[in-house]
Amino acid sequence: MEKKKLLGMTPDELKEVTLSCGLPKFAAKQIADWMYVKRVRSIDEMTNISKAGREALKENYELGVIAYAGLAESSDGTKKYLFPVETMVNATLGVENTAVEAVMIPDEDRATLCVSSQSGCKMGCHFCMTGRQGFHGNLSVADILSQFIAVDESARLTNAVFMGMGEPLDNYPNVMRAIEVLTSDWGFGWSPKRITLSTIGVLPNLRRYLDECRCHLAVSLHNPFPEERQSVMPVQKGWPIEQVIEMIKEYDFTGQRRVSFEYTMFAGFNDDKRHADALARLLKGLECRVNLIRFHKIPDFPYDCPPQAVMEAFRDRLNRQGVTTTIRASRGEDILAACGMLAGQHNSKK
Description:
Elements: E1 4-5, H1 11-20, H2 27-37, H3 51-60, E2 61-62, E3 70-73, E4 79-85, E5 98-107, E6 110-114, E7 118-120, H4 129-132, E8 135-138, H5 141-150, E9 159-162, H6 172-183, E10 195-199, H7 203-212, E11 216-220, H8 226-232, H9 241-248, E12 259-265, H10 273-282, E13 289-294, H11 308-320, E14 324-327
Parallel strand pairs: 1-2, 6-9, 9-10, 10-11, 11-12, 12-13, 13-14
Antiparallel strand pairs: 3-4, 4-5, 5-6, 7-8
Helix pairs in contact: 1-2, 5-6, 7-9, 10-11
């Protein structure tokens, strides 16, 4: 019988676990503290629970932390971790073992973890290596949280972005439970301001996210013209970006929660004055930020990144029209850890 994973459970769920194992109710709080505050990697490390109690737990449960199987480090300090995952794959695809990647991005006093929520992705964006590999399955809550605990920098992580492999809103229940653990007093105790979720705009679950969560939102936009966007992002047909933005405009982003739009730039495709002006019109009246992203060349995709001067002119044109726009610094390109480059490939540890 497959053992259940403790990682991701709430205090109430842990109380049921302790009762089933013959442990006192207060042991639930101890287990939560070991997992989410001390971030141990095995049940055996929970030393204020009796040895007999730990053995009882191990009969039917495991912690759920998965050690990384590969590590690559960039010249800029960015680190990419490879995690084997087995429990969540879609059996109908005939996939037994696969892997996902998480990226740790250091920046002065910040350490941000770019976390994956799926193995592969259904969305099929043509410029994304993750999307090209197809969909292998949703990560479990334990698989998601394990990335926060198993990286070498676990104790000093300051922020998280759900911008790794997969579409977070396509794995809504597990992503939201992971965020609940990250932001609860009984969990990691993080402020929602430390977490950003990125989406292409899965409309039904986007509304749920905006209603139920106070974390930041980032939307992958990439082209303001519907037909052009659909040519590289098939999801435009089902969830048009115009409808996504109209929904977002119903919510208040003048307080602590922020919304931003990711705009990967492709030379000769979305980088001229026409696109800048259309983007400004599309976002008019919305308190937001646009992040311009350098495209990192991948095989069998026809476009390159425009020159720096073109990106700066695009940025300046948007800023003049009242749309706060910045060019995001590219990190980890030399280890295939930059935006759109994650493919779950095994790396040699450095």
